[in-house]
Amino acid sequence: MGAWLLRYDGVDPDGERLRESLCTLGNGYFATRGAAPEASADAVHHPGTYIAGCYDRLTSTVAGRTTTNEDLVNAPNWLPLTFRAADGEWFGSRPGDLLGHRQVLDLRRGLLIRRLRHRDAAGRDTTVEQQRLVSMDDPHVAALRTVIRPENWSGTLEIRSGLDGRVRNDGVARYRGLADAHLSIRSAGADREVIWLEAETVTSAVRIAEAARTTVTGAAVARRETRDEPGWIAHHLTLPLRQGEAVAVEKVVALHTSRDRATDGTLAAARSRAERAPAFAELCDRHVMAWDHLWRRGRLDVGRSAAQRTINLHMFHLLQTVSPHTVGLDVGVPARGLHGEAYRGHVFWDELFVLPFLGLRFPDVVRALLLYRWHRLPAARAAAREAGYAGAMYPWQSGGDGRDETPRTHFNPRSGRWLPDNSRLQRHVGLAVAFNVWQYYEATGDLEFLSSYGAEMLLEIARFWADLATFDAPSGRYDIRGVMGPDEYHDALPGAAAPGLANNAYTNVMAVWALCRALDVLALLPSERRAELLERLGLGPAEITRLEDVSRRLRVPFHADGVISQFEGYEDLAEFDWAGYRARYGDIRRLDRILEAEGDTPNRYKASKQADVLMLFYLLSADELTALLARLGYRLDRAAIPRTVRYYLARTSHGSTLSAVVHAWVLARSDRAASWRFFLEALDGDVHDVQGGTTGEGVHLGAMAGTLDLAQRCYTGLEPRGDVLRLNPHLPPGLPGLGMELRYRGHWGIRLHADHRGVRVGLRRSAQPPIRMIVDGGPVTTIPAGRTVWFATSAAAGERTAGTG
Ligand code: BGC
C-alpha cells in the first residue's frame, strides 16, 4: 500500500466513526468527515463539516444545573448523494445492499476514493466509483465525483443530490442531553444546476451558505426537479441508462460564511462560486498541485515504510486543520482538529505540541495562530482582573471570543455521574502561549512580530504569574497556590476543602522561564517600542523589580532524594497498586474514571494521567533547566534527571495521547529503545485508536504533531536558540535516517539529513545571510546560502568533524 495510501476493505459498522475521522478531508478553512454521502447521522455514521473558528453557544440543563457550552458548529452536510433505479429503493437505505466496498485515502493527492458494488431488492447490480476532495487550492470549494455503471440492467436512473441543514452537534455520546441544535435555516433555493442552503448559528449569528452544482456527463438529464423540506434541499435528476454504460455525476460545492473577507454577501458568494467553479478534473488538478506544494514544505522522511505512512497521515491531518489558508482567519488549533466534536472544538495548551514544529515549516501559519491568542488578550486580561490579578490569565479551553470555555462538570461514563470539573485551574496554558511566542521568534527572528504583538503577550503573561505568586517571609520564597498541573488526575490534596494545588513544579519552573523571557524581551525591544508598551501597560519599575524577584525566589518542591516533586504534598500520597488494577481492569489509562466509579479518587495516589514534571525535560534542555533552577538557588544534580524520569514513568497511566509523545522525547537520550517504543505507541494513537473509541470523535492533533516533532526536533536535537541553530542527532535504533526541509530565519528549504553517522545540512541558493550552526556542542560553523556541510556526530565517530560540499 506504500506510504501514501490508507485502505479499508469491506464495511465495519463498529469502526465506521474511526474511519470517518481518519478519512476527514479539509483545507484549514473547513473539513468534512469521511462519512458516506448516502448516510445521515445515526448510530453508525456521523457526517460532520466543521468550519475553522465557527463557534456557537447554547444553554442546557444538566443534572439540575444550567450550563452554557460553546461548540465548533457542525455545518450543513454538503455530501448527500444517492441514486436508485426509478422503481427501486435509494442506495444506502437498506442494510446489506453492498456486494463489495473499498475506501482509500490518498494522502499525497488529498483524495478520498471509494469503489463499491450495490445490489437492489430487484437484483440490479450497480458499480459505483467516487472521488472526493476538499480543495487545498480554493478553500471555499469541495467536490464529489460519482461514476455509476449498471452491470446487469438498463432503465431510468434517479439521482438525489442534496444539502442537509438538519444536522446537529450530536457526535459525542457523552454530550447527549446537552443542547446541540446550532443552526437556524434562513433560506434554501435552486437556480438551474445549483441548489443552495443558508443557515445562521443560533447565538453567534454566523451565516453559513452552501451552494451545490450537480451536473452529469455520459447521459442526457431528462428531468431536473427541486425537492425541499425544512432544512433540506435536493436536486432530483432523472436520466436513461444502458447496461454497461457509465455516467459521471459531479457535485461541486461552495461554502462561505459571514466571517469571510472579500465577499459581497455570504449567500451570493457561495452561489456565484458554485456557478463559476471549474469541473472536477480541473479542480482536482489544482488541488493536487496545492498539496504537492505543501508536501514539499512538509517533507519528513523517516526511512521506514510502516512509520512513514503514519507520519504522512499525521502531517496530512495537521495540514488539513491548519494550513496556509489559516492565515488571516483568526482561529486557534482545536485539540481534536476539524475532525469531530470531542472537546467541542476547543483550543487547549495542545498548541505547545504543534506550533514549535510548524514554526520551522510554515512560520506564516504560526504567526496567524499566535495572533489568535493576541486578539484574545483583552479576554485574558479581564479573566485575570476578575480573579483579582494583574496581567493576562489565558483560559484552559477557549473558542470564539477567548473567554474560559472549560465546562464546570464532566461525565464519567463508567459511573454514570456528572462530576465537578476543575481543569480550568490549569493556568499553565498561558505559559504555553509564552513558550510558543518565543519559539516562533527564535525560529524566524521576526522582531516586528515580537515588538508589535509577542512582547505584549509575554509581558502580560509574566505579570500574571508574578502577581499570582505570594511571598512567604519565613522561607524567603514565593508560592503559587490554587493551580493544577498538566496531570489532570490531581486537582487537590486528599480531603482539601477547595480545589487547587500548591507549587506545581512544571508550572513554577515554566513561570520562571516566562518571567526571564519577559525580562529579555524588555532588553530586546527597540527603545521607542519599549517605552510605548510600558506606558500602555502601566508597567512601572516596581513591577519589573517584582518580575525579577519572583524569577529568583519562586519555590520548587523536591523529594528528600532530590527528585523534583510534582507539587507540594505529592511525596506523602499513597503508592498506587498498578499491578493489581492492571490485573483487574486491563486498560487503566482512564484511572480517574475507574477510581471515581469505585468511590475513590486519584487525588489520594502517586498516579498521574500524563507527563507533568517530565514536561520540563520535554520543553527545556538539561542545561536550560539546570540554569533556571540555579537561578532559584536549587542545584539539579545530573544524576537526578534519569532518576526523576524513572520515578514518574513508573507512576503514569498515559491517559492522554500526549503522554507517549513526551515520554518518547524525554527518554530519547537516556534509553533510546524505550523512546522508540513510546514513539511507535504515539504513532499508533489514532490509527489504532489506542484510547478506546476517542478517535471517532476527532483526531488527537497535539499527539499527531508531537510525533512529527519527535522526528523533526527531538531525534535530531534541533534547537533554534539565540541566533544559532543547534543540532545534536541521536537517532533511536529503529530509525535508519531522517530527512527533512526546514525554514529558518528567511531561508526556505534547508535540507537536513541525519543518520547514525552524522548529519548533512544543505542551504539552497538565496540572498539570505549565512546561518550559524552548532553541531553536537562543537564550535559555531557559519554556512552560507548554496553550501552543503556534512558533520560526523560524536555518537558515531567519537569526535565531531565538519566537511563542506
Ligand atoms: C489532556 C490535556 C489535553 C486535552 C486536549 C486531555 O485529555 O489531559 O492535556 O490538553 O486532553 O487534548
From TrEMBL:
Domain called Glycoside hydrolase family 65 C-terminal: residue spans: 718-781
Transferase recorded as keyword: yes
Entry keyword S-adenosyl-L-methionine: no
Domain Glycoside hydrolase family 65 central catalytic: 313-708
Residue ranges of every copy of the Glycoside hydrolase family 65 N-terminal domain listed in the record: 8-259
Keyword annotations from UniProtKB, A to Z: Glycosidase, Glycosyltransferase, Hydrolase, Transferase
Molecular function (Gene Ontology), one example: hydrolase activity
PANTHER family hit by this protein: GLYCOSYL HYDROLASE-RELATED, PROTEIN-GLUCOSYLGALACTOSYLHYDROXYLYSINE GLUCOSIDASE
Protein name as catalogued: Glycosyl hydrolase family 65 protein
Organism: Actinoallomurus spadix
Record lineage: Bacteria, Bacillati, Actinomycetota, Actinomycetes, Streptosporangiales
